[in-house]
Protein 1
Amino acid sequence: MKVKALSELYPILAVTVVVFISVALLGGLDSVTRDMIEYQKELKVQRMLNEIFPDMTSYTSEGDIYIISADGTEIGFAFLAVGKGYGGDIDILVGLEDETTLKGIAVIAHAETPGLGDKILAPDFTDRFVGVNIADVAVPDEGGKIDAITGSTISTKAVIDAVRTTAMEKVKELKD
Amino acid sequence: MTKFWKQFLSGIVISNPLFVLALGLCPALAVSVTVVNGIGMSVATAFVLLGSAIVVSSIKKFVPDIVRIPIFIVVIASFVTIADLTLKAYIPTLADSLGIFLPLIVVNCIIMGRAEAFSSKHPVHLAIADALGASVGFAIAMIIISFLRELLGTGQLTLKIAPYLDLHLFTLPVLGENPMALFILPPGAFLLIGLLLALFRWRGWMKSE
Amino acid sequence: MNELMPIFIRMITTSNIVLVMYLGLCPFFGVSKKLGPAISMGIAVTLVMIIASVATWLIHDYILMQFDVMYMYIVLFILVISSLVQMVEMTIKRTNATLFNALGIYLPLITTNCAILGLTFLNIREEYTMLQSIVNGLGAGIGFGIALILMSSIRVKLEIADVPKSMRGLPIAYIGATILALIFVFTFGGIV
């Protein structure tokens, strides 16, 4: 009786042992890599912020807004804006010098068409946002100062609109 | 020793997982946008293939038939997790480029297929040969596909070694100015694979239907 | 873009799971030769995607996050998905023979499939709520089904067409997929 029960139990035992070993092994690896993975994520954010704020020495985050400092003085803010592009979401990092002026933008992720929509990545386009007043972030037809790129109007407009609306949102948040 | 080499070589040409068996195409097409990605994916897949082949072959005597599939799954998934965590910690740029396809290695038909069909039925050294052969075959196929896609799609070949550190290898004369971006996109991928598969069949390296 | 309708529409069009996201290619080419199986497969996939989305979301929130074992996500997701689908298959087999013949035989093809698992990874990556995950799965499944149905119409015509020997079967199917992908990538752009 005991032998029969054991042989029926064996498959379940085998699976349990394998799962246990797996959990132990992976858990061990996790404790070794966890800090490193966090560090890499921080590094990534830092690099992105540095692109817009080359003078940055440190930053903190309040909610979803980054407060950028250089040697102790606040030099600006940054936050993520999401635009509705041609192929999907466009993730944009927006930097503000103060509550009215843009420091610059950087496109972090997109699904736009290579050769057409991905022109939003080029400094040629992103430079147009430098030093611009938030209220002026729009195409000339809508009273703004930023030209869209011909051939990729949807992608560029998506970026422009997202930057403006999110900027206005965040500035309001900051004031509270 | 000849058995070892025979098994190894068959994985590369006769039973090339991508071109001949048409397995593992999902990650192959998705990731092969640049050569760096292609190589990275091949290495990660090879690691999982080898690791799971060795383990499956070693424990085959202790694995009851009824539960062999769940056990194989756990073994393969564990190796994939090892690759996932290790890359995210030490080569995050590659982990980011591979995206969800890195953890998706776990359902790469090649791996489960080899474990079920071969590793569980043969001694360890042959399982290693089989895994190595399939890995090399996969790698060669991946590199060919991503080489063509990157070259035709961007007109240049760049190796992204680290963030903000690109080793630009060369730019093609005409394509450099006007690359056929189509090849970086899904339609181009499908087109390329279709043509390559047809080529393999035409040359008799793969049986036609 | 986290409202439900955009997620749904996007999954069918600009982020079509098989034609744009490269997921689910194996079953896509395996089951697209005739219209009947294509429809059955589409329904089966949609069903499994919803079940998988719910199950993995629960695991994520109540086990992975709760016990701080996020690293077990790959192992747990795939084990749970394959077990659940097997259970669904057995239930259908015992309760409804006709449904089983229509749907059930496709379920094993879907279990260890990059489409299902890939979708669950997407739900995690986008940090969707339970409802968003379900809509994501629904949209993905329907997108898959539509692509499959379109593909089968093309392949049925290709079967009787005069195709060169080396192109027959899989290669020409990929060319067909090229055209479908072109349509999905370029005409649906900007929809959401």
Protein 2
Amino acid sequence: MLPEVIAPAADQGSMHRFLLTRLLHTIPVLLGVSVVAFFVLRLAPGDPVLLMTGGDASPEEMERLRHQLGLDQPLFIQYLAWMREVLGGNLGTSLYTSQPVLDEILKRFPNTLILTVAAIVMAIIFGMPLGILAATRRGTSFDSSSMVVSVMGWSMPNFWLGLMLIVVFGVWLRWLPTGGMYDIMAMERSFWDLLSHLILPTLTLATAHMAYVARFTRSSLLEVLSQDYIRTARAKGLSEWLVILRHALRNSLIPIISVLGVTVGNLLGGAVIVEAVFSWPGLGSLMVQSILNRDFPVVQGAMLFAAVVFIFVNLVADLLYAVVDPRIRYD
Amino acid sequence: MSNSKHKARKTRRGVSRREALKGAAALSAFTAASSVVGIGPSFVAQAATKGRPIVLGVASESNALHHVAAAGVSNHSISFVQRSLLMYDHKDAAYTIKPGLAEDLPEVLDDGLRFRFKLRDNAFYHDGTPVTAEAIANWVNLQVDENHPDAEYWTWAKQSRVSTVERAEAVDELTLDIYMKRFNAAQLDWFTDRSYEGVPLHVVEERRDLTQEEFAAGPYKLASREKGVATILDRFDQFYDEEEGVAPRLGLRPITETNARVAALEAGEVDYVDNFPAEEAERLRGVDGVVVKDRKTLYVWFMTLDMRQEHLSDVRVRQALNYALDKESLIRDVLGGAAERSYSPLSRQFGPMYAGDVVQHYDYDPDKARALLKEAGVEGGFKSTIYTNTGRRGQLKPVEMSQFIQANWADVGVDCNIEALEWSAFEARRISGEFPIATRGWTPSTGDPDGLLIQNFHSGMVPPVQRNVCYLQDPEVDRLLDEGSGTLELDKRVNAFVEAQKRIVDLAPWVFVAHEIAFEAHTADLQDYPEAHPAGWGESLTYAWKK
């Protein structure tokens, strides 16, 4: 929910202007994304018709297919045709499945959303308390070791971590599934089935983000804790935890929100490596496969979709600043 | 095999507190209802068959279940749902052809320009429509006749295996005549291609979408499909051969990452995997409850040498490049022994057509390589570029192999850069003849050698027509290949193709490197999986069942 309902009446007008301005800024951004999405893939060598036919078709047959798919038109004409479709709410049709691109994306996006939300929640639940503890125990061995652990988490390659978790928890201990989103042979899908499949990819994806949430929380909190009003709060006799949780933490959230906003936006475009390792059927794996297949409409549509999502998430992040810090106005 | 692991595999993910929470009730309900299963909201009733469902971990997922709509490389799912007029015996590694939808091998009429098939009277498509001569004839004609009224229905058809067909005609309901444009000695092999399965007539009339539906006639039919998650196939109860389609259900789970796929097998989540490297095969042999099999293949990995290029136009240079490469060491050290050395284009799996024992052997001899280069006037060597790809299913380890080759060749003065391209970019440029030296791995789609030999070495097959990207244009090779493909007499074919291979090897348009040994692994409770079968991505699993 946008913070409209809690904003003072005097601020609502400025918030509307802010939203309108942001929406207007979106237009050139999306236009730029559409150009990049359309032309860059076509500039890369590789012929989708060749891939579709496996090289078995004669040159005449390939030309016929190329014509049928509209791939023999000049690039600019193809781009305009595609933009006409996009403005009509149609992202095109997959060269490979003949299905609407939007349908292909919307089948996969919820899976990516589930994984992203789970990873971010885990990153916040574990990362922020770690950062808080490190900040309040600055200079101690706990502080040092927690920051070392966070650097390790940040540095660890997703690919390697995911495979290690699969080997330990899936193969050796057999506590959790090695991949996929559901047990494909189960009679019905259940929430517990999904949850068990979600744990390892979430842990893999969240580890790096936990690490930098912890680091950002620590550094941001340390800066706030050195402020005069914190000294005043302590002088008033408030307990340290009350000082931190009620006075300091909220003021340290701005940089964390910034980082999380960018991260969520990126992840919602598809966590490609984690999806590949765990065979998670998300947007990232769709995009990679479509790029390899030169399924132009899907790549274009997915990139545009990811851009819209990214813009939306960052807009939400910007709005959250005002929630966290009442001094911020939408001017 | 330890009891705990076997027990764990029986319950698919081992005994765990999570399994207990999910409920023994769910598990026992599944077991009790094993003949009546469903996934999600759909519910399929089927006759009881043997054993439990089999789950395959597959490296790639087809975009469609009909071969004309399946882009790129075909895979397991299509081989389970489709059949053709003829088929290879999946219990026999010798590529023996046996009847499929036809009740017997065809009559060969008009000196091989007409084939008459008698179809089975108990073959059906998955929608229950009988397989008729009219359905197959219509489908074949749709592929070969540009003026066919339904020619625009589907243009994805992989038409290479119907390219020799002039037309097809239904003589009666179950008698089909196929007329050829020209004689093709390999035509019986080509009739194993799925282009000859046909579809029910109404499918064409209704313009059904073959990327979303299948109207095949194989032992398994589509039950449900969720891209990126699973393809579920149920046994088709009207399939004509009771020996095939033993397991009640097949689940194909796409796991693109090789290590994750193998881990799924070890964890008991899947029953079969293939397409993994030699190092994993060695490790899996030591795992209880897992059976690993080697499979010698038709596959060949080679390097094309563009004979139009400076230096490469000289046969002595091309031979030198062969002598300069230590193929045994490459196979041992880079491929982990997962290949046999290639002496000529055809592997031993081609049976009597194999010529590796009688062709010139380019055994590793850098001194001889230098001598040949000196004879050819390039004593100081020369510079070039090896074009390869960054890897894809069926290409072994192209970059690592190229690096090994680069080092070997550098010893004799041939300095090569390596340019590794993503597959799509690589292949588009390779088949247009852009690369002076390029790597490639290839599995022929039939067990007849003419496809591999003619496409790669006949002068009529230079780009843009086909794959002769080394631009070999030798009249004697052409004559021998034409002779081999122009007769059905086995002795004459063998002689012609063997002589052709001798000539080809002498001319060295390729660097002949390796024939892959493929690996597959399955759980020990998979029964009746044929010990020897032709290469084909687990197609023989139609005979298997799971305890």
Protein 3
Amino acid sequence: MKTRYGMVIDVDRCTGCGACMVACAAENNVPPAAPRATARTGITPMLVHKVSNGLDGEGRHEAFLPVTCMQCEHETPCVTVCPQQAVQLDPATGIVMQMPQRCLGCRYCMTACPYHARYFNWWDPAWPQGMEKSLNPGVAVRMRGVVEKCNLCHARLHAAQEKAAAEGKREIDRHDYAPACVEACPTGAITFGNLADENDPASQAAHSPEAFRLLARLGTEPKVYYRSKRSWVRALAEPKTAPGRKEVQHG
Amino acid sequence: MFPGVDGFHWTFAHIIFLSVFFTVVLTILGTLAAAAVHTAGDLRRGRAVEICWKAEFAQLPEAERHCRHELAGRVAERVCPNAFDCRHCGEYAHYAALPAGGTGIPACVGQAQTLGLNYPDNRFYHRGHTWVAPQDDGTLMVGLDDLAARLVGNPDSLELPPEGAEIQSDGTAWRMKKNGHTVRVRAPIDGAVVETGGPEKGWYLRLRPHGAADLRHLLRGPEVSPWLAREIERLQLQLTPPKAGPALADGGVLVPGLMDAMPDAEWDTVLAGTFLEA
Amino acid sequence: MASAVLTDRRWIARGAERTSTAQFALWLVPWVALLALGIYAAGLCLYYGLNQTNMDNRFAFGLWIFLDLSVIALGAGAFFTGFLVYILGRTELKPILNAAVVLGFICYSGAVAVLMVDVGQPLRGWFTFWHPNTHSMLTEVTFCISCYLLVLTLEYIPVLLRNRQLGKRPSSAVFEYRLHHLVPVLAGVGAFLSFFHQGSLGGLYGVLRGRPFAFREGFSVWPSTFFLFVLSAIAVGPSFLMLVTAAVEKLTGRRQVPSGLLQRLGFLSGVLLAAYVAAKSIDTLIWLNVTSPSVGFAPWEYYAYPPFGSALLFIEILLFGLVPAALLLYPRTAGNRRWLLTGAGLACCGILLNRFVMTVQTLALPTLAFDEFLRYTPSWQEVATFGGLIAYGVIVFSLSYRYLPLFGQEKREATDVSGR
């Protein structure tokens, strides 16, 4: 059976606590921000945005939208533009795999990504003394000058595959593999699974009428879905004309 | 990039892209290689002198490249297309057959026969201001003509080729140093050096030619004075101080030892024009 | 002219008039200082990382990419002049060919040098050759620009070997002669490569599906920006060449090229610029009315953020496009040197504005519904590197002018005694 890993994020359940961001950073060995780092130069493969319906006063509603790499399936922008194929769509899993070892740091993929889901290592990674003990041994640390992004915690998939192989099985156990953000979310807002399997809860959630994808009109076929009962949240899928929709990023 | 490298696929786009790229790179490197190989071949076959002269000739100003037939009045205007090598010029015979001074334009205007300079009739003259005198024993004497000798005067030092050295036409015959300028005198003819002379002897080299000496490219007889007239005009222009503007003197003979007499003139330019250097 | 003072006279062609060694050294001093500052700034970036710049995750491309694109477009005069002279046989442009080659060499070598600082891992530059991505415009650009820089170097070598001292050795002179004979091949290859990389630089932006401001439809895999960039590059190349030549003439106080040559360059520029304005206008109309709305952006929405108002569009197409085309084509203005140079200058401004807008405005504009319009100011290290590139160009060009036969036959012209 074809495997296409994806997520459905229930915006109505997201409290904006940011646990997913912290778990992501811990799992993927993201270094502490350099002293001069800003919101625009930090590395946040999972980034929670605070969004609103644009009104002020009584009618104002707000929500939180966790944004990560959308794992675009069709004509993946970053894959198309990388001059040295440092990012590839894995045909076996559908995960858009970034290879920092091959990355030149030209940042063309970053201009191509419509979701701003890619992050550049503007500094050399540095951990305060002692903190290097918290590094995840399964994930390689990146050096300065390369681009990185969410890869659906591929090390965990790898671990699940090794476990299945040790048990003599060909397919992994669905419960053995979940990215760190999914695991950490206290409200269970993120449903992760195989979107190509119609029995998978993630696949079913993705097909619900309240599900939407960001910038679906671009035709990149992202595999990260959102769902919300609120229509104004669903309207965030496509950009509106009013320039007054400036929002503050969370974290 | 190549089959065997991780991730390579034989897609149509790959084939087109890589074949274009390799064609382009091979063309560029091929050009460089061709130039290098030809150069090595030229150097090995002793064609360096000939090619250097051709290249330098092309860089001379047009005013210094007029055909001898124009000087002789056989044709109104013609720039030499052949680096003064009349021996291998396809059109030499055609122009040589025309009557001298026959185009109605006088070969020179109101100038005395050899302008007070010593240009014996039995010598053949090269555009680089050397002369060749064939001797009875088959050797060729080569010397500096009177105009050049008066310009340079007494050289400070002389660098003559050793006996037995091969001299190539339009290559270097000998070098002279004067007042900090190095003059490279162009050889008028091919040959092996039999004997060397100096300014005091009145000649500089005695050469033994290979086979019969071909002197067709050298000026002789009525061609000499129109050429000299042009040369003197050139010198007058080049030696005039810049502010004065060109001033053609009437009559007047070149003073011997001009480099000593006019130390502040643009000798770089004058010597280059006289001895055919770009 | 033997002098006890330290002089470089023996490096200068006989009969060529140049300022004294001391004056030339004085001219070079501020440029060398600027270059040193640029090298220092670039060194900081290479040593400490790109955090020395003000680029960030949202402004992944900044001043340097704008600089590279502009400089490569301005250097298009090299390949275009070579194409016209060697492939189309327009020999009246021959006197300016050497200068065009040197200018092109400066532009491309400088651009590549700045690119090496701009990327995060310069030592991995060869990875593009080892793992090329045939779908990526940037792969195409990398291949073409590398090859073309090689072509320009090979075209520059014969000019270098015509230096009085460098060309002294017979082997150098013979090599120059042989290479010079093959230059038409290089010119053809250069034209082919240039067409593709000038276009692909435009294609870089045109394929960005996620940036509707830049995205364009086109012909097969090539967006319209591919063709617009080529057209604008060949339109502005002759203009830039003209400006540089005029600057040399002004600084040296001497005419360097046959009269009418600059006007000829202006005419070429004008014709191509007019074609470009027409093409760009059509493309803009299609983009505003068809392409952009199809991905959810209404026209003029891009220009809602000051100072990037819609005036920018009109300035680019009219003031820096139609006006210089008119100035360069209309005989009355084209015949007047001041208007000619103004036209050329405006054309160059148009290219700079176009490249700026495609780089900076593209990235400033929001793409997601909850994005905001962003601002970016280059850091001093970026500006200093930019300055260093300009200084490098001035220095190389000055040295080339002083020691090499850059502009036709200028020496010993006063000796044309026959009155012709």
Protein 4
Amino acid sequence: MKPPMETRNSAAPAIIVENVSKVYPRQPLLSFLRDRSYQVGTQALREISFQVREGETVGLLGPNGAGKTTLLKIICSLLYPSSGRVLVHGLDLVKESLKARSMMGLITCEDRSFYWRITGRQNLDFFATLYGIPRKKAAGRIEILLETLGLTYAADRPFHSYSSGMKQKLAIARGLLGDPRVVLYDEPTRSLDPLSTQNIHQWILANRADSPRTAHLIATNQLREAELLCDRVVIINRGVVIAHGTIGEIRQRFRTEQHVVHRIRFRGPRAALPQADFEHGLVEVGEEERDGDFVSIRAYTREGSEGLSAALSSILGNGGVVVECHTEEVAFDEVFCALVQRQYDESHAVAAGAKS
Amino acid sequence: MRLAWAFFKRDATIALSYRVSFVVQFIGKLAVLALFYFLSKTVGDKPLPMLARYGGDFLAFMLIGISLSDCVLVSLTSFATQIRDAQTTGTLEATLMSPVHLPTILLYSSLWDYFMTAVGFVFYLLGGAFLFGVKFHQFHFFAAVALFVLTITSFMGVGILWAGIVLLIKRGDAIRTVGGFVMVIMSGVFFPPSLFPSWMQPISRLIPLTDALEGMRLALLQGYGFYQLSDILIRLTLFATVLMVVGLLGFNWAVRIGKNVGSLTQY
């Protein structure tokens, strides 16, 4: 049994995901009544473990179909795990789901989770009652949230008249009504314009500062969002964790495993264009732009190798003049894509091996 | 109570926001009343021998039949409709995330429907009495209320069980329509079950609505009290207890399956 992934943060764990696997079971009766192809025997998650500590913001990343939604549904207690368990402040989500849910708030991008014919305030008032918040306290909390999110002017308008950004803000208000100790976000800025996205991000950051002990788990496909908001990320693909840690750590690990990228701009003849030199660690050279005599290239070298020297020597030795040279930080989306691709390649190789 | 009121207020606000639909449902009931009034004129003003047990008035007999069967059909369908609506509109997930038991959510979500059902029941009876001259000379109010509550509770159990089935199979409209139709025919909404062949009558007795209609007609048209209706009240109490327990157990089982197969919020 794998222990939940450790973090350096010494705060108490708010969410513990421990060896969670999910196989959608065969249901012959349901298959007969509904749909023969009904998710039979699909392994959606395999031994997922991680923790989110108090005051921490963790991003749950993964491509479409990776298992993020399944995992989030398990954490929301809308779905039972096949094995393993999820604890929220020590409470098992299967055995003590009501108590655990009272500590959680879900912020979803699904605007249809509101009642469209009633006003924003009436929606919030209804959900506040579901969370058992006393009437007076609820009214005050709703007022504060509406004001902080800039929705007071629209509070008594029907929800259907809200713009996408306003709907998303109301979803945030709903998620925070009960002053939760754990906030779950399901793609909080999906389908929002850049300005609304920025507003929501600023608001989440401000809220983190105001409630420093609240734990946040953000399931998102927006890598920029993860970089901006998250202390750590857990990347899953095909139901398994393929990377975890801070984005800096993952980037560094990837850089060490893969290559360092150098952007070089030079002036000179075509012959000056360097070629891959594996012996010296120059893994690949890609031409990016040619503007008259000026050429921009990206040179991929092994960490700690002489690859950059090899590239520069090739340029200078063939009559070129180096105008500019700098080492690029590997973009996180590049790391993400490479990690996902590598896992696909590995699983295909395993499958092919098993067949042969 | 505050939670129940929150659900009631939510549903009332939504229902009243569809003003035309809200008003038209009462016009529809008036049209049904008028239809049965003219049907009763076709049958004639003389008391019908086959309805002698209930006072012989065809319109009064029909009025109680359709008003109570309306209530029963709402009981049967309201929970499943609430679940299905919440699944399709997407509100189910948000409510399920709250620290409230799903059966409680289900029960409270139907309060408005039950309120409107009771209003409809009274509307039929008062409309019949004041607009079309139906006479309820000697009704027993408390016996009628007891019968109403037991009938609703019995079918509430079936309705909750049905909601559990809908949670899993999603679309059950066809089964519901056929089931409702068979029940309405078999229980004597439009004619007394004594008209059935002798082999069908015991089957008719297995449907709680048969007892409920019999009891309600006797309480409202003949003034039967608790003592005279004791057999019916006992049978309805048994039906209500058993069906409620079965309904809740079945619903919880369906929720467990839904949480296992991940179909709880799918539609």
